Amino acid sequence: MSDTAARPGKLETRDLTIRFGGHVAVNGVSCTFAPGTLTAIVGPNGAGKTTYFNLISGQLKASAGNVILNGRDITSLPASARTHAGLGRAFQLTSLFPNLSVMENVRLALQSRRQIGLDMWNVWSHHRDLIERAEQLLDSVALLSKRDVEAAALPHGDQRKLEVGLLMALDPDVYMFDEPTAGMSVDEVPVILDLIRALKARRDKTILLVEHKMDVVRELADRIIVLHNGTLMADGDPEKVIASPVVQQAYLGLAPVEENA
Ligand SMILES: Nc1ncnc2c1ncn2[C@@H]1O[C@H](COP(=O)(O)OP(=O)(O)OP(=O)(O)O)[C@@H](O)[C@H]1O
């Protein structure tokens, strides 16, 4: 517990709020996420889950409230600075280098993480290491055979896998997954879930997962928070949250859980 507090990756939102005109899409959400835990964020369509993510990662500017990472108030930082501070989001990362190959994308992400840049002293000593690590990552997202394909030419499912691979290469303190398996074929889904499982098993990262599939949530989550109309409606142990009447009524009515799953 005390070493959890000392580890990087503690993320906190305090009264985080955003209004679009008269509509409050995220309404005073206060939550703390600890390293070594996976929190699933669930709620009906339009509940504010993606907007909450956007406020944390800096894609949207809060109307009120704060985002605190590792004790530092990052509310006023743009998304890129938040990435440098340790927040990582699988969010259309491939659009950064659409015309580079799969391998080049991962290599650049690794380089940016290790800040090797163009320091010639380091280039050769790190080169083989980089390539090996990039190959391992591509293997873990089942894209090694497509290493020379241009990122933009990948089918949708492969692009999503590459996004997760790039996120792994950046290796942030906080991993944010927004429906990571959406739009994937049945045989592609396990690749991503295995990666999230492995990440979770390390128990040193803070993982946030927006996910509609309740079987996935049940298996992976240490904790569930429920958003409804932008408000934090429930927060706690997965089984208790799922069983709570308010969740059964407001959320699970829209997405029934198979009791024998
Ligand atoms: N840029 C925006 N301008 C105006 N309204 C917005 C904007 N972004 C989100 N909203 C509204 O905020 C609310 C929350 O949307 P959000 O996409 O965060 O929900 P969600 O829980 O992620 O839904 P889903 O599960 O369908 O992805 C919705 O009513 C949406 O229409």
TrEMBL record:
GO CC terms in record: plasma membrane
Domain ABC transporter: 11-254
GO molecular function, one term: ATP hydrolysis activity
InterPro entries tied to this protein: AAA+_ATPase (IPR003593), ABC_AA/LPS_Transport (IPR051120), ABC_transporter-like_ATP-bd (IPR003439), P-loop_NTPase (IPR027417)
Keyword vocabulary terms for this entry: ATP-binding, Cell membrane, Membrane, Nucleotide-binding, Transport
Pfam families xref list: ABC_tran (PF00005)
SMART domains documented for this protein: AAA
Recorded superkingdom: Bacteria
SUPFAM superfamilies: P-loop containing nucleoside triphosphate hydrolases
Alphabetical list of Gene3D superfamilies matching this protein: P-loop containing nucleotide triphosphate hydrolases
Name of the protein in question: ABC transporter ATP-binding protein
The organism of origin for this protein: Noviherbaspirillum galbum
